[in-house]
Amino acid sequence: MERIFAKSTLREYWKEHPDVEQYFKTWYDTAINADWRNPTDVKQAYSTASILKDSRIVFNIKGNSY
């Protein structure tokens, strides 16, 4: 699976919403170090993630608040 991350975008967001900072940091660290090869691998790590078409995934951050 391809990885596309922009930590600077996350950082900008948590500056405006500090309550989500630690959740984003945890998600980012998990995702950047993961060896996900297919959607099933992602779902094993994040059971609440939604697998969309075109290899897109929606992660529910902070109990789906973000």
Mind explaining what this structure looks like?
With 66 residues, the chain is mainly alpha-helical. It has helices at 7-16, 21-33, 39-45, and strands at 50-52, 56-58. A two-stranded antiparallel sheet has the order 1-2. It is globular. The protein starts with 6 loop residues before the first helix and ends in an 8-residue tail after the last strand.
Largest sheet, in brief, is: 2 strands, antiparallel
Number of helices: 3
Strand order of the largest sheet: 1-2
Average pLDDT level: 88
List the helices and strands and how they pair.
Blueprint: H1 7-16, H2 21-33, H3 39-45, E1 50-52, E2 56-58
Antiparallel strand pairs: 1-2
Task: Describe this protein with a few key phrases.
66 residues; mainly alpha; 3 helices
In short:
The protein has 66 residues and is mainly α. Helices cover 45% and strands 9% of the residues.
